[in-house]
């Protein structure tokens, strides 16, 4: 039996007669093929990527495993429809904190048709993409079993965060006091195990960066980094299973001998935000108040779900 | 006495009653202040940068020295006009090969006015900027004392080079046979002393890159890397005095806590082109022919000046 995934933070969601991805109980994620060229483009990327022997193993691990396409009963009741069969990245994860970051200041490729270009450009200008080189597309932060999850107010407010607001969100993401209805500064209690160390988020991002400095095979437009970890594991001193994955390849193009400077630039900008949290721990303390307007821009009024 | 510089490869040139930069005989470069906000913006950048104690010495060396502004007799005969007084980067250089590379796929800042944005975007799309993350703005390659210099056909053709054409130009730049009227492949005779080594171009670009991965003070739109060396020194086994400098700061903006992901992405793309020439020397040989169309796109028909 297929069901609607628990941990989806961005993109079209299934349910109430709408078309969206589904998961099964053995770790597979079924993503409906978008009817236009986006669906075909994503299939052809996964097919090319999964058979490309030039991609080193330490890079393939950042991509969902691909298991072809399959006709399954669509979530909108429209009958059997083709779906990408992918690895369910959140399978077997408990009380997961997750964030979706769309990388690149430009979400359109060089030879995009004029109307598509102007549509994307308008969105890139209206969101954080242009100033920051990336935009947060979604986030779900686990507070505690008592308060549950905390989610940003709405889809559009999280996409328009300023640099200071992104910093605050990335601190809250790894803080023990993030889900409380207080105006306390985030304590960044889990910054070190989640962002730091030889297997943490920063280290993984730097591996990905090194590949992007060299690879000229693919250009990834409108592609996201998913960042996730399990807070309760960190709370009891275990590894929080911090992980990044790349998702959404409907707008991947051939690199044609040039590096993906647009993705790389945005990735480096995101890396700088993460590394600043690790190198300036003094910014994380409970002794002063967070700016109210910033907090309100990020979070919903009721806080938890 | 001020005179028109010998080695200018991009930008407005003085002479025949036109306004342009001038040099004196003691190593100073006089750049007319553009009358609109660009002139004021460039003065304010140089003033800020030259007094900023956070810029490390190994980075300040990549920028022209700044000596304030001064009223001097303008080259267009319009009388005494304000000029930036800068270091003449080509002073004391003999038979210089020089290239101007405008860095960044986007030459406009996030909050640019609509008409300026669309004007720049049109140019970025029509040139190499969007696909490559940079465009060559000018080049002057010294061949030999017999044939003199070789310059690209015209300003617009060099700005629209494809990835393959840029590779060929960057190889010709460091080849002993580049100025000959042959269809021989560039021999890359000086690739190693100019691009390689601990003091070569690649090493300098990587130092600059490391700073751009970290600095959040300035964003450099429409700024160029000048790359230069002296071929005759290399020919007799001396150091070719290979050097990069940053120029043109009329469109520098505050970084506001975010790295310059647009400049950094373009810089990384350019670095990849240079490093490929060093790592794949087999591509440089005299035993096969260069594609005629590529050669014609880059160079003027008469070859030398």
TrEMBL record, chains A, B:
Enzyme kind, highest EC tier: transferase
Record-linked Pfam families: IPK
Region annotation Disordered: where it falls in the sequence: 1-21
PANTHER family noted in UniProt: INOSITOL POLYPHOSPHATE KINASE (PTHR12400), INOSITOL POLYPHOSPHATE MULTIKINASE (PTHR12400:SF51)
Source organism per UniProt: Salvia divinorum (Maria pastora)
Recorded family membership: Belongs to the inositol phosphokinase (IPK) family.
Keywords, ordered alphabetically: ATP-binding, Kinase, Nucleotide-binding, Transferase
Its job: Inositol phosphate kinase with a broad substrate specificity.
Catalytic activity: 1D-myo-inositol 1,4,5-trisphosphate + 2 ATP = 1D-myo-inositol 1,3,4,5,6-pentakisphosphate + 2 ADP + 2 H(+); 1D-myo-inositol 1,3,4,6-tetrakisphosphate + ATP = 1D-myo-inositol 1,3,4,5,6-pentakisphosphate + ADP + H(+)
Protein name: Inositol polyphosphate multikinase
């Amino acid at each position: 039996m297929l069901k609607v995934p628990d941990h989806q933070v961005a993109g079209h969601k299934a349910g109430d007669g709408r078309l969206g991805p589904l998961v099964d109980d053995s770790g597979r994620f079924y993503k409906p093929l978008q009817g236009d060229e986006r669906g075909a483009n994503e299939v052809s990327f996964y097919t090319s990527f999964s058979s490309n022997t030039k991609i080193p193993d330490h890079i393939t691990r950042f991509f969902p495993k691909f298991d072809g396409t399959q006709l399954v009963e669509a979530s909108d009741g429209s009958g059997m429809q083709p779906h990408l069969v992918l690895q369910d990245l959140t399978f077997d994860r408990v009380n997961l904190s997750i964030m979706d970051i769309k990388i690149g200041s430009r979400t359109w490729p060089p030879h995009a048709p004029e109307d598509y270009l102007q549509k994307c450009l308008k969105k890139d200008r209206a969101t954080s993409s242009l100033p920051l080189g990336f935009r947060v597309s979604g986030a779900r932060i686990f507070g505690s079993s008592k308060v549950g999850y905390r989610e940003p107010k709405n889809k559009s407010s999280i996409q328009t965060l300023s640099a200071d607001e992104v910093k605050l969100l990335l601190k809250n993401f790894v803080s023990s006091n993030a889900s409380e209805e207080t105006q306390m500064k985030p304590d960044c209690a889990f910054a070190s195990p989640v962002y730091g160390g030889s297997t943490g988020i920063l280290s993984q991002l730097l591996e990905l960066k090194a590949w992007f400095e060299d690879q000229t095979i693919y250009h990834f437009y409108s592609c996201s980094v998913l960042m996730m970890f399990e807070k309760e594991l960190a709370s009891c001193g275990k590894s929080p299973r911090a992980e990044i994955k790349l998702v959404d390849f409907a707008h991947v193009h051939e690199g044609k001998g040039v590096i993906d400077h647009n993705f790389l630039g945005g990735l480096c900008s995101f890396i700088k935000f993460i590394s600043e949290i690790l190198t300036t721990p003094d910014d994380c303390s409970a002794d002063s108040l967070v700016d109210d307007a910033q907090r309100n821009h990020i979070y919903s009024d009721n806080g938890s779900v």
